[in-house]
Specification:
The complex is a heterodimer of chains A (about 60) and B (about 140). By secondary structure, chain A is mostly helical. Chain A has helices at about 5-25, 30-59. The chains are: A mainly alpha (about 60), B mainly alpha (about 140).
């Protein structure tokens, strides 16, 4: 059994979801890679931003 | 001077389109749903199929390793949605249910993440299977 941290779980999720999104949503390999990186950045970036928002709301 | 279109190329295009419609066009869709990546393997998209299979399989296994649960019945609407998401994994879900994986109730936050990993693995597999179908029918060019 594994117990990743919350951030590690976000990163793992983002890696695999971005891979599938990149391959299925674009036609050429270079565009697939770019879109995958874009999705990964949005997944992880939005998680970080929302975490800080919730941190300040909770204070 | 006006150029005439290449007659051979013009004649080849409909033939290629016709050839892509021959056979059972839903085979990549069904194969891709049952076994992650299999739809792309059937279309000889080896690298894409391998990446899709690895991603979906890894998400499913990591979800189980986080003590996520496999939805078994539809007591309410959210459970029903969970069953639908899990069923997207095809044979992975059937095998998991058969050997009793993911039967423990969710007790920790990480286990809840694991449950979501399993559901999302199923949903991603459906997207991958539809992509294979689009490649087969020619709706997606390459």
């Amino acid at each position: 059994m594994i117990h990743p941290s919350h951030f590690a779980a976000v990163v793992i999720f983002a890696v695999f979801a971005s891979t599938v999104f990149g391959i299925t949503m674009r036609d050429t390999p270079s565009r697939m890679v770019r879109y995958g990186i874009y999705c990964f950045t949005l997944f992880v970036g939005s998680a970080i931003v929302l975490s800080w928002v919730m941190f300040f709301i909770a204070r | 001077m006006a150029t005439t279109p290449n007659k051979a190329a013009v004649a080849t295009k409909p033939a290629a389109a016709k050839a892509s419609q021959q056979g059972f066009v839903y085979l990549p869709l069904i194969a891709g749903w049952l076994v992650p990546g299999a739809g792309h393997f059937l279309l000889r998209k080896w690298i894409r199929g391998a990446l899709l299979a690895a991603s979906i399989f890894a998400m499913f296994v990591l979800g189980l390793a986080m003590q996520g649960k496999l939805y078994t019945g539809a007591q309410d609407i959210l459970d029903l949605l969970g069953v639908v998401g899990d069923l997207g994994s095809g044979l992975l879900y059937v095998i998991g249910r058969t050997i009793g994986l993911g039967a423990e109730p969710v007790k920790t936050t990480v286990a809840d993440y694991g449950t979501k990993f399993i559901v999302v693995a199923g949903l991603l597999n459906v997207i991958a299977a539809v992509d294979a179908h689009n490649l087969r029918t020619g709706r997606k060019s390459s």
